[in-house]
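Hello Y.,

Per our agreement to keep a running log of every chain we model this quarter, I'm adding this entry. I've kept the format consistent with earlier entries: sequence first, then predicted structure.
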Amino acid sequence: MGMFDRVRCLYPLPHHQDAEFQTKDILSLLEPHAFSGGALDDYEIMKSGRLRVRRHKRKWVKAPGSFLGAYFKSIKSWWEYVPTIHGDMHIYTSEGEFGKRGYRWIEFRVRFTNGRVQEVREVKRKPIRKPVRRVAHA
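Predicted structure for the entry above:
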């Protein structure tokens, strides 16, 4: 598993326009020497094709019942555009319950060129099936 970023896509998609997507690609697109994974940030792909990230000013707040006895609370948030993104970002979500009939993985490849969406393509995946248990006959 690992950490990921959340993505809301206002740019036209073939389907699942209102879904909340995840990705682990943004950090590696912005910082080529970075590890693969996300930072639990919120992003939006705007109708114009530009990407923006929600930034926060945070304050360390004491909370005796919490794991560390305190946490960072967002006291102000704002959106900033990410003009330097360049490359392919895969965004994905699912519907249904994994391992059950009707489960479906939904994935799109969003190609950014010089800070704007160039194209969106659906990534087709073969359905994951449970392994068939074979019994040897004597």
